[in-house]
Amino acid sequence: MKAILVSMGSFVAAAGLIVACSPETMSATTARGDYMEFCVDCHGPEGKGDGVLAQVLTPRPADLTQISDRNDGKFSQSYVMSHIDGYDTPQSGTAMPPFGDLLEGKTVLYDSGDGIATPTPERLVALMEYIASLQDG
Fold this sequence. Notes:
It comes from Paracoccus seriniphilus. This protein is mainly alpha-helical.
């Protein structure tokens, strides 16, 4: 009986490791790390626009927790990703610094709602999903 309990304990521990290393968990961990590396100084740890550099920036960093509220309750994934990667900002100056690392590496197929799956940097999608998780309400 003791051998069976030890074996079951080993199985449960191994299953926990598999879950901890699942792509979803790794993606969320990577996205949070990317947020802390690229976004926290301006937008703050909670995304409220109160990072350590916020006081000296013009325009002030956006409160990322209010994206949905500013858009009639809808979180526009495409808008957020295009804002992060600089696609929607004018060439002559931008409030957002370039994030080349987020645009490199593995891509995933992302459908923005138009039915066309477009190869999109995996880390960019993960960061957008992390920002979506910060929404109030």
